Inverse folding.
């Protein structure tokens, strides 16, 4: 019984996440979904450009400034909707 109790929270968390995304998706019109797709692609392109910037040898602060400019009004936060660990 103790092992089944440990497995319960992740299962419930997964279920809650699925429900949340289902509700969020159900509330979007086709137009809103298309706009979301475009935003995701624009964010992905901005991140790809940031990766190429870093690969080219430019300093991180220069690449981050470019990323922030590309994502202005597009994503949440100064990391264009994504932050990773260092």
């Amino acid at each position: 019984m103790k092992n089944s109790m440990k497995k319960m929270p992740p299962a419930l968390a997964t279920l809650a996440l699925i429900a949340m995304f289902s509700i969020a998706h159900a509330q979007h019109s086709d137009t809103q979904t298309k706009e979301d797709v475009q935003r995701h692609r624009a964010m992905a392109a901005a991140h790809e450009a940031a990766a190429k910037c870093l690969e080219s040898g430019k300093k991180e602060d220069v690449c981050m400034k470019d990323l922030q400019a590309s994502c202005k009004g597009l994503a949440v936060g100064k990391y264009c909707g994504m932050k990773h660990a260092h």
Observations:
- The chain has one domain: 2-71.
- Helices lie at 2-26, 30-55, 60-71.
- The CA atoms of residues 11 and 17 lie 10 Å apart.
